[in-house]
Design brief:
Rossmann fold; alpha/beta; 12 strands; 6-stranded mixed sheet; single chain
């Protein structure tokens, strides 16, 4: 049985290492996890045709939303978030039936559960890509109000980076970076926000996990904030993906 990860680029990913170590530790000798870099989501049928043993795969940047039209069915987590990071492949005759799931929601909830978040808190979500959809879905479950921060659009529930002021930072105790800024190999980059407004009351989550300590985390930590990376989210979503693939999921 083959599983894997599609996206572009994949140089930053720890997924193959994580699953290889998991399979070895748990004596799962019938499974293999591989990286499948795709330049375009339109190459998915070719990938499936060339890998007949593929039973499921994870989805990362930039395909978490682009993959939706290629799926035969989705579960409630996808309907809730509008994004997919896990696909189950089932053989129906000589055809592949593709089912989409979003285990990033579970992963993010695992990441934040050890921190003192209140339903009265407000959050800024930096970025509007596929990962941001899972984070916003998780915040809705927690009853936390959020505002997106984007490069391109400004609406009732979003701000442009150029509109972001000290007051916005002070009014939102939780800040989540869902962008790839700071991710290997572009480790010197970070979101452009007024860091001087961050204080020790803030809780900061950077979904980037490679490197483990990003410029974003450093800048926020220097202001006294609690700041953590997304490694625990990676582990959480990976375990939930394996539950789906192995047939152990209860819901």
């Amino acid at each position: 049985m083959v599983f894997g990860l599609i996206g572009n680029p994949l140089d930053h990913s720890f997924s193959a290492r994580y699953f290889s170590e998991k399979f070895k530790k748990e004596g799962i000798d019938y499974a293999d996890y591989r990286l499948f870099p795709l330049k375009n989501i339109s190459l998915l049928p070719e990938l499936l045709a060339n890998n007949p043993l593929l039973c499921g795969f994870n989805v990362t940047i930039p395909f978490k939303e682009q993959i939706l039209p290629w799926l035969d069915e989705v579960d409630n987590s996808v309907k809730e978030s509008g994004a997919v990071n896990t696909v189950l492949i089932r053989k129906v005759g000589d055809k592949n039936m593709l089912s989409g799931f979003n285990t990033d929601i579970f992963g993010f909830l695992e990441l934040v559960k050890d921190f003192p978040l209140l339903s009265s808190d407000k959050a800024l979500i930096l970025g509007t890509g596929g990962a941001s959809k899972a984070v916003s879905a998780a915040f809705r479950r927690l009853g936390i109000t959020y505002t997106f921060v984007s490069r391109n659009t400004s609406s009732q529930d979003s701000l442009l980076y150029t509109e972001l002021q000290k007051e916005h930072i002070q009014q939102h105790r939780i800040i989540v970076n869902t962008t790839p800024l700071g991710m290997f190999p572009e480790i010197s980059t970070c979101p452009e926000i007024p860091y001087h407004a961050i204080g020790n009351e803030h809780v900061i989550f950077d979904l980037v996990y490679n490197p483990e300590r990003t410029v974003f985390i450093d800048k926020c930590s220097q202001q006294g904030a609690i700041a953590v990376n997304g490694l625990k989210m990676l582990y959480g979503q990976a375990e939930k993906s394996w539950e789906i693939w192995s047939g152990a999921a209860t819901t």
